């Protein structure tokens, strides 16, 4: 029995017009979210900067800065000069307030070009628009592809959209909570004792956001494998026998996508693990011989 087909043949110009429509919708979605991100850039930046500030030991809140201020004041009063009046109380208060401002009201980043801060905030807002709007962009992609699908295939769209969004944000969370802090601690510690870490605003944003997007996209691998196996485009056995090429490809992909060696190795390892997960899940969705015959009959 064949599946009911509702797809129709569209002329080339109609396909191009539909593609233009979906691209424009995606641009509007990302631009709107980017504008919202720019409005709330300070709040969003405080979240993105938290791994960097922890790596450098910068207080993350005014209460933490206040505790440090009290410690500095106490140390100046008791340890530096003993009972000798080396500093007046006003001098101690001024020094403590200066340290509080330096540590709690600055991000630890610098910019070295007059336009760097402005353009980096624009770039950061676009990155955030892409991150937040990814599920909506996926919907636009599916709407473009949907006319070419059979009714049975369309039934999987909602599941794939939900799974794709969840996997993407799992990858972003994994990168933000684990990979980004570990990378920063490693590279900040390399020159500790000899050099002072001072990242530029533009470099940090590019480093952090590319890392988040790279891991978000890489987490889509199991879903892609499940789709191609379910549609009969490739067999699960073929995926299993090509694992050596996958390892080589994961290393090459990590070197291309990730911004530095540490995250490249982590991305390659995660890619291999995700590939194994995709093979396991594909076992439960791979069409049986009867299903494959039905697909051939439909085509």
Explained architecture:
Helices cover 76% and strands 0% of the residues. It is built from 14 helices and no strands. The N terminus is likely disordered.
Task: Describe how the helices and strands are arranged.
Elements: H1 12-39, H2 41-48, H3 50-56, H4 62-78, H5 89-104, H6 116-145, H7 151-154, H8 157-190, H9 201-218, H10 221-230, H11 236-241, H12 243-257, H13 261-285, H14 289-298
Helix pairs in contact: 1-6, 3-8, 4-5, 6-8, 6-9, 8-9, 9-13, 10-13, 12-13
Structural key phrases:
single chain, 299 residues, mainly alpha, 14 helices, disordered N terminus
Write a brief caption for the model.
With 299 residues, the protein is mostly helical.
State the shape: elongated
Structural class: mainly alpha
Fraction of helical residues: over 70%
Rg, Å, rounded: 26 Å
Overall pLDDT: 76
Strand content: under 5%
